[in-house]
Amino acid sequence: MGELMGNFSCPNPSCSKNFKWKKNLAYHLKYQCEKPPRYKCPYCEYASKWRKDVERHVQTIHPLEPVKVVEIGKAKEEIKFECTYICPRENCKKTFKTFNNLKVHLSSGTREENFTGVG
Predict the structure, then answer these.
(1) How far apart are CA 103 and CA 87, in angstroms?
(2) What is the Cα gyration radius of the chain?
(3) What does the pLDDT look like over 47-91, one tens digit per residue?
């Protein structure tokens, strides 16, 4: 079995990334290095190698839509992540998969809010 920790460099000559862990280099080679984006916005053509980037994009560019991320190469029905409840507070764009999580979030505030599910 090979060394798990050390200094692992990407073997691609056009990539200068180095990794402390062998598993991180393996992930980089499999999913990132010179690979097309893996995740896509379901509402426009925006795509990224990172799911969180697409989630942030949907929250800021499509604020009235549920936060969804499509994994490219899978059927549209196979959505990787979907939030169905959006916080109604002004200046709060947090989204939640369950109604209960939204209630907990709202209970941490100082005033009672009305909220509805989206979806």
Answers:
(1) 9
(2) 19
(3) 999 899 999 999 999 988 888 899 887 654 445 556 567 787 878
Residues in CB range of 111: below 8 A, 6 or more apart: none
Q: Are 81 and 96 in contact (CB under 8 A)?
A: no
Residues in the chain: 119
Distance between CA 12 and CA 31 in Å, rounded? 14
This prediction's pTM: 0.52
Contact 5, 20 (CB under 8 A): yes
Sign of CA dihedral 15, 20, 26, 30: negative
Q: Which of 88, 81, 80 is nearest to 118 (CA)?
A: 88
Amino acid identity, position 72 = I
Distance (Å, rounded) from C-alpha 100 to C-alpha 50?
27
Q: Residue 22: what residue type?
A: K
Please answer whether residues 35 and 49 qualify as being in contact, where contact means their C-beta atoms are separated by less than 8 angstroms. yes
